[in-house]
Amino acid sequence: MTLDSKEQRRILGKFATGVTVASTKIGDETWGMTANAVTSLSLEPPLVILCIQKEGQSRAKFEEGGCFALNILSVDQQEISDRFAFKGPKDFSGLDTTTAKTGAPILKDALGWVDCQLKEILPGGDHDIFVGEIVAGGAPEEGSPLLYFSGKYAKLPT
Ligand SMILES: Cc1cc2nc3c(=O)[nH]c(=O)nc-3n(C[C@H](O)[C@H](O)[C@H](O)COP(=O)(O)O)c2cc1C
């Protein structure tokens, strides 16, 4: 049985996720992309993966940057998610950011973040799988996540 892509999206959309803004730095330029196709891959060595669609501008930016940070968004950061998901500038101007080791922008109010060196790019159909080795990270104790479920933003019940 083959599933059409709409049905695949609908089914896998039931798998609730958090939302990240992946960031990178290419020379003086910063670049961000909203992403939920991310996961912790390995503890030893510490690896994460970020899946990026092949079409679009982001793939080349993240390859050229050679590094990426994953900024895990809090429930108050939906606007930032939209900014990096829809058409428009993808730099971090006007946002409160810092850097750790690689220079990829880290959102000051992120719920958590990891800063990674790009180790490998693996093929994955119409996406590529960016494997990053974590070189720094952090998360404050408090905060609540922005969630994505069935194609919509969601939040934990309070
Ligand atoms: C909640 C959410 C999660 C997303 N996750 C991903 C993802 O994991 N990988 C991806 O390539 N695009 C993802 N997107 C879409 C990108 O954020 C969007 O296409 C972005 O504008 C990419 O820019 P580009 O097309 O210029 O590369 C997601 C969008 C949303 C709203």
3D structure, described in words:
The structure is a single chain. The protein is mostly beta strands and 158 residues long. The chain has a single domain (19-139), classed as Electron Transport, Fmn-binding Protein, Chain A (Pnp Oxidase, Chain A, Roll). It has helices at 5-12, 58-65, 78-83; strands spanning 17-18, 20-26, 29-35, 38-42, 47-53, 67-72, 97-98, 106-107, 112-124, 127-138, 146-149, 152-155. The structure holds flavin mononucleotide. Flavin mononucleotide binds next to strand 3 and strand 5.
Features:
seven-stranded antiparallel sheet; mainly beta; three-stranded antiparallel sheet; 12 strands; 45% strand; Pnp Oxidase, Chain A; binds flavin mononucleotide; globular; 158 residues
